[in-house]
Structures are given as structure tokens and as C-alpha cells.
Amino acid sequence: MIMGILLAMVAGALVSLQTIFNNQVNARAGSWATTTLVLGMGFIASFIASLIFEGSGTFSLQHMKPWYWISGAIGVGVVFCLVQGIKRLGPTFATSIVLIAQLSTALVFDTTGWLVAQKIALTPGKLIGVLVIVVGIIVYKFGDRWVGKASRNKKPATSHTLGQ
Amino acid sequence: MLKGILFALLGGACITLQGVANNRISYDIGTWQAATITQLTGFILAAIVLAFVRDGSWKDMRQVPALYWFGGAFASVIIFSEVTAIQYIGVTFTIAMLLIAQLCMTFVIDSRGWFGVLRRKITVPQCIGVGLMIAGVLILKL
């Protein structure tokens, strides 16, 4: 349990770092040149790690199913969708939706048991927990704007406004 | 607007799908191998798209400080950690903790102005937002 939490947090911290690094590349090169570089680097690093930790097991792929080969296409689809979403909605709105969609989809996978080892039943507690996290994401992303607006209108930001 | 929302929803769904797919693949061929295959096929596809789109010249890469070229390398550890976490604690809990750590890290980097990021102060709503997310995770695990 603790191990799972720690690993998830390591992943999250690195996602943040990677996003910042990638944005630095993206600011100078185009988004597809950036994506190609990022995935190429990811491949090299994963391949080296695989050689270190799995040795020759890296090449024993007899249990490969055909769709495994195209799984990387999902990542390319992600980049396309994010670029389009941000272009149309701006980064704050777009990333809020992305984060919420990530979490909602996670709930769907756990509940249906699709592609995962064990099904986890959807309880009211889980649903409420996810909703509170969603509200947290919205407050994190938009809270500043509301507070800014409220102070411009000389209306203090009440906890009610923040908790919507 | 609606189109943008749909793209963002699909993008987010695909991020989670990728983690879950890697988890599934890792059962059959191993986690590091799953990361390798996914990144390789993604790289090839992105290179093909790049060849058609030609949106930005590779020459511009020279202007990017070399440190930032290696951001992609984090993906290997990200995929390994995420897949292993899903095996321990399930998808929802993993994604929830991942998002909290992600926002907290962004928080810290923004407030320090590290890595060429425009320095921004941590604001009260941001703290409340992260607090609510943590509360949500606690409710999730009750």
C-alpha cells in the first residue's frame, strides 16, 4: 500500500518535471518535433533500463499480442488531443478537463475491471472522494481568477464561492 | 469550444488508458519492456507525423538548452512507477496520488522559478485546491 502510494507520487512529480522540460523544448521547436524527441528519449531510457534490470529478457517477447505494438499510438493521440484542446480552450480550462478526465477514466477501469487484474467495486464513498478531488482540481486551477474577480468587484471571496 | 472540451476529455482519458494498457502489457512481457515498446512505437508514429506536418524545424532544437532534451527520459521511470502502483493500489487511487504529487511539484517549481519557469507565488486557492484533493483521497480510501 505505502509502496503503491510512493510510486504513484514519484510518477506524478516526474510528470510535472517532464511537462516543464517539454514546454521548454516546445517553446522553441514545434510540437511534433518536441513529441518525437520526447518519445525517442523515453524509448532510449526505457531500453537501457530494461537491459540493466531484465538483461536478455528484454528481447523475449514471445507473449506479445499484436495490439501491444500499437499501444504507443495512444501517446501520440494524447499529444494531438492536448494540443487541440489547449488551442481551443486555453491551458487552464483545457488542463482542468484533462485532469478530471484522467481521474474519471481511472474510476471506469477500476469499476469495470477492464485491462486490470482486479475489479474494485464502486462505492458511494469512492464516488464522493473522486468528486471532492475534482472540486479540488477546479479550485486549484480557477480559484485565483475567482478571487481576483471578487476583489475587483469589492466582494470578498467566500468559502461558498470556492467550494462550488 | 465544444470541440476543445471533447479533445481535452479524450486526451485525459487516453492518458489513463495508456497507463492501464502498459499495466496489461507488463503482465505478459515485463514492465520495462512494456515501457520500451510503447515509447518505440510512439516515437516511430510521431516521427512519421513530423515528416508530414513539418511544423517546426529541427534546427531550432539547437536553441533549446541541452538539459531539456532529456525530459522524455523521465517517461521510463514514470511508466514503471505508475504501472507498479496500479498493481498495488488500483487505478483510481494511483491516478489520484499521481495528480496530487504532480500539482504539488508544479507548485514548488512555480514558486521557486526553477527551470526557466516564470516565478509565481503560491496562492491561497491553490492551497485549498490541493487540500481538497488530499481530503478526497482520504474519503476515497475510507
Automatic annotation (TrEMBL), chain A:
Keyword field: Membrane, Transmembrane, Transmembrane helix
Transmembrane regions listed in the UniProt entry: 37-55, 67-86, 92-115, 127-143
Naturally occurring in which organism (per UniProt): Paenibacillus wenxiniae
Cross-referenced InterPro entries: YdcZ (IPR006750)
Entries under Pfam families matching the protein: DMT_YdcZ (PF04657)
Lineage: superkingdom: Bacteria
UniProt-recorded name of the protein: DMT family transporter
